[in-house]
Amino acid sequence: MAAVKRDKRRITLLLYEVENLTVTLLVSWEIEFLQVVEKVKDKLKRLVSSKTMKCFYFNKDKTHDEVKTRKSDSSSSTSTSIAGGGGSGRGSEFNSQTSTTTNTSLHVLSETHSNNLKVFPLDDLKTATNNFSRSLMIGEGGFGGVFRGIIQSPEDSRKKIEIAVKQLSRRGLQGHKEWVTEVNVLGVVDHPNLVKLIGYCAEDDERGIQRLLVYEYVQNRSVQDHLSNRFILTPLPWSTRMKIAQDTARGLAYLHHGLEFQIIFRDFKSSNILLDENWNAKLSDFGLARMGPSDGISHVSTAVVGTIGYAAPEYIQTGHLTAKSDVWSYGIFLYELITGRRPFDRNRPRNEQNILEWIRPHLTDINKFKMIIDPRLEGNYYLKSALKLAAVANRCLMVKAKSRPTMSEVVEMLERIVETSEEVSIDVPLMKSLAPKDAFEATRRERVKRRFVEVLIGVSGCPNLPTWSPKLVTSL
Predict the structure, then answer these.
(1) Does the active-site annotation cover 267?
(2) Which of 225, 247, 267, 374 is catalytic?
(3) What is the pTM of this model?
(4) Tens digit of pLDDT for each residue in 135-145?
(5) Neighbouring residues of 87: CB distance < 8 A, sequence distance ≥ 6
(6) Is 402 annotated as a binding residue?
């Protein structure tokens, strides 16, 4: 038995070596992808032919999960921007390491999709950022720093453009693999609601290997920065919040349904949503993204990573990742837009730390519902659209993942809300208890009023708010 355990450990270490070999070769950008594939195949052949492999059944789609959990004591994720100071540190506040299926690596994107990313010499980026001057730093987090710079446009050398350069710290929380993943994802996607990656740099200098990503500069910081009190910023108007809800839904829908393959963001949150000069929202920080499951496979088994308050309960409990995990995170984000509060904030009283626990008692009455709407709006919002936005959020927060809508369906719901928004406050109860006992005791007037509210908040067959009872997950 001891020999079997030793052999199994050898296999684990050898497979880990293969994975590291793949990442290392991919970062050495002079080597073509097919060469990488051949080297990895050769390594796997040697593993399969080894004596230790004869002792165990090997299936590329099934792995043994060895779970380790790292808890964070911070009250919220470190917010750092690749644009005006928003964005994410290394977004995870919890990170349970589990083994992953071999057919979901985003490295395969390079096999069938070429990109037009520019390879920047390190000296050029040093010049653009004044040797990574602290005066040009616009953000800092667990991964390293983000610096503002100016370069010649890769498309027109006569023009100069502003850029944001993310420098990966050798001591940072974002690793080599996340860096490669972000290059692979942003190198093949093209959508107005995804931040644009212009190029990258992987070069040695006197301090060792330098890994940098060069993005378009997105100047109006992150959504989290505008919703929090860390910066003296003008509160986001309600109309802008609705636009952000639409933009982010479109970005996620593109990742889930707009490509030949599916990409699951896995770390959707307000600090990863940047706002440009026209207040268009752009998703950023794809270091934790994964390819979705192949046809016929229900989910991807992967490491549990993300940010406390955003991760779907089934993902936390099982490590099973699907596009519906992103949908849950989006539902949390909608309530963040409505309330202006973080999903999880240890600085608040215990009964208000978790946004879902805090809002639920306020969904029984219209006056209570008004109490959870961001006070910084000072009443300048459309109550009808706020009610309907909450209804969409509730659909996204269904306990059963299969009951949640797709992001394409969410986009359609939001479009209808915007089209039918009226500049009129509606002073009726948000909902009443629909238990049978109450139904018999209710007066005719109350029943009519209740039906009116059901029609008011219904969106494309959206279930009534009383049916929403999300299973709250204890924060890690």
Answers:
(1) yes
(2) 267
(3) 0.68
(4) 999 887 667 78
(5) 79, 80, 81, 139, 141, 146, 222, 271, 272, 274, 284, 285
(6) no
